[in-house]
Design goal:
With 321 residues, this protein is of the alpha/beta class. Helices cover 46% and strands 15% of the residues. The strands form four sheets. It has a five-stranded parallel sheet. A two-stranded antiparallel sheet has the order 3-4. A two-stranded antiparallel sheet has the order 6-7. Strand 6 and strand 7 form a beta hairpin. InterPro entries: AAA+_ATPase, ATPase_AAA-3, CbbQ/NirQ/NorQ/GpvN, ChlI/MoxR_AAA_lid, P-loop_NTPase.
Length: 321
């Protein structure tokens, strides 16, 4: 796939998504970036801001197999992965797959399930496979989990384990729409649901080719150092009890190359990294007890780090060589 073809496909995805979602261009860009980087996304915000609608829109735009799990306190791991059932006619056990056997998996309100059920996704998210009763099954590519989560302060929620949070490439806070965006929402959805009319923009093979295309995006050594210095500063910052891991560096590297391609470039610039630091790093750090008591948010600390780490000053021609 050449660069012009890649850009055309990105534009088609954006245009199709815009027929459903109002004012969510930034969120759409981040989710597409995560998909092309081979990662998963956690959409976090209060109910009713469009988290589930966003996940459904992405799946329909990409013409991929779509599965949905409504997480509840009584959900069991077998409800996610599948179960072996005895077939009396054949006199043997047969595997009945769960909703995880798909391309785009919507884990709706994931933090309403118990930590045991949440953890049933760990192997699939990291290794693109899952194991039931000693038998490992490989998932079809691409595979992406788009999970939605209500704020943990809300009744009936369980915090995601740290290992689960680390499997998400990005955590995205959607936020409320503006006045005019909300006006457009009530007009657009007042009589019909535009999601029912959306047409696929690309198919499975297109996505796989686009993911391979990301490997050719260039990152200059100076920009690479900028990325690594940001991550390393999270480990030295006075507010930190636990900084970002080397896995975070790798995820930020992959995401930056994917975002550069989505934005129409063959090379990464510092602004790509800046725009990704909060969604990629904020859920991977742990603040000190004092900062937690003072209600300091991880996003604030990440922004403080961005202000301290020097930005490389080479020109665009150097970065794009």
């Amino acid at each position: 796939m050449d660069f012009a073809d890649f850009s055309k496909k990105v534009d088609r995805i954006r245009q199709n998504a815009a027929t459903v979602m109002v004012g969510r261009e930034k969120t759409m860009e981040l989710i597409l970036t995560a998909l092309l980087a081979g990662g998963h996304v956690l959409l976090e915000d209060v109910p009713g801001v469009g988290k589930t609608m966003m996940a459904k829109t992405i799946a329909k735009c990409l013409d991929l197999k779509f599965g949905r799990i409504q997480f509840t306190p009584d959900l069991m791991p077998s409800d996610v992965l599948g179960v072996n059932v005895y077939n009396q006619k054949e006199a043997e056990f047969e595997f009945r797959p769960g909703p995880i056997m798909t391309n785009i998996l919507l884990a709706d309100e994931i933090n309403r399930a118990t930590p045991k059920t949440q953890s049933s996704l760990l192997e699939a998210m990291e290794e693109k496979q899952f194991t039931v009763e000693g038998v490992t099954r490989v998932l079809e590519m691409p595979f992406m989990v788009i999970a939605t989560q209500n704020p943990i302060e809300m009744e009936g929620t369980f915090p995601l384990p740290e290992a689960q949070m680390d499997r998400f490439l990005m955590r995205i806070d959607m936020g409320y729409p503006s006045l005019e965006e909300e006006r457009e929402i009530i007009h657009r959805f007042g009589e019909k649901n535009p999601l029912h009319e959306i047409e696929p923009a690309v198919g499975r093979e297109d996505i796989l080719e686009m993911q391979n295309h990301i490997n050719g995006i260039y990152m200059d050594r100076a920009v690479e150092d900028y990325l690594l210095n940001i991550v390393r500063e999270t480990r030295a910052h006075v507010s930190m009890r636990l900084g970002a891991s080397p896995r975070a560096s790798l995820y930020l590297y992959r995401s930056a190359r994917a975002l550069a391609a989505v934005r129409g470039r063959t090379y990464v610039i510092p602004d790509d990294i800046k725009d990704l630091t909060v969604p990629v790093l904020s859920h991977r750090i742990v603040l000190t007890s004092r900062n937690l008591l003072e209600d300091v948010r991880p996003e604030q600390v990440i922004l403080d780090i961005l202000n301290k780490v020097p930005v490389p000053v080479e020109n665009l021609e150097e970065w794009g060589r």
